[in-house]
Amino acid sequence: MEDKIIFLSRTTTFAAAHQLRSKYLSKDENLSTFGKCNHIHGHNYQVTVTIRGKIDPISGMLMNTCKLHEYMEMAITNPLDHKNLDEDVDYFANVTSTTENVAMYIWNSLEKILPAGCLYKVKIYETDKSFVVFKGN
């Protein structure tokens, strides 16, 4: 079997509410900076996680997609689905819950539980027209 790097991706969704605001800004500055997103609202986020590595010569897989799904449940669905990000997720107590920061939260959560070095990319859609990609650097 060739010793090439392969990429495996899996997508999940979660629904969450949040309010874009910074504790470093005044009420007027928050409204000016974040516009209508300064008011509490929600999204149906779509997250694609991509891992990378070599195909195991015995199983023929990089990772069983069911196992990747389990990791994503632990790092994404369980802590974030049907939550108010600002109130229910400790990470966002001092971090503005932008999609950029949600992507970093997901990366950090996955990196703690996935096999070392295999996490390649987190792509998160806030809407069908806007998304963030984070590759950990």
From TrEMBL:
Keywords on record: Lyase, Metal-binding, Tetrahydrobiopterin biosynthesis, Zinc
Cofactor note: Binds 1 zinc ion per subunit.
Protein EC: 4.2.3.12
GO biological process, any: tetrahydrobiopterin biosynthetic process
Pathways involved: Cofactor biosynthesis; tetrahydrobiopterin biosynthesis; tetrahydrobiopterin from 7,8-dihydroneopterin triphosphate: step 1/3
Reactions catalysed according to its record: 7,8-dihydroneopterin 3'-triphosphate = 6-pyruvoyl-5,6,7,8-tetrahydropterin + triphosphate + H(+)
Enzyme superclass (EC): lyase
GO annotation, cellular component aspect: mitochondrion
Catalytic residues, chain numbering: 37 (proton acceptor), 82 (charge relay system), 126 (charge relay system)
Superkingdom as given in the UniProt entry: Eukaryota
Gene3D superfamilies: 6-pyruvoyl tetrahydropterin synthase/QueD
GO MF: 6-pyruvoyltetrahydropterin synthase activity; metal ion binding
Cofactor entry: Zn(2+)
Positions contributing to Zn(2+) binding: 18, 41, 43
Alphabetical list of InterPro entries matching this protein: 6-PTP_synth/QueD (IPR007115), 6-PTP_synth/QueD_sf (IPR038418), PTPS_His_AS (IPR022469)
Protein family (similarity comment): Belongs to the PTPS family.
Function: Involved in the biosynthesis of tetrahydrobiopterin, an essential cofactor of aromatic amino acid hydroxylases. Catalyzes the transformation of 7,8-dihydroneopterin triphosphate into 6-pyruvoyl tetrahydropterin.
Protein name listed in UniProt: 6-pyruvoyl tetrahydrobiopterin synthase
Lineage of the species this protein comes from: Eukaryota, Metazoa, Chordata, Craniata, Vertebrata
Gene that this sequence comes from: LOC117670167
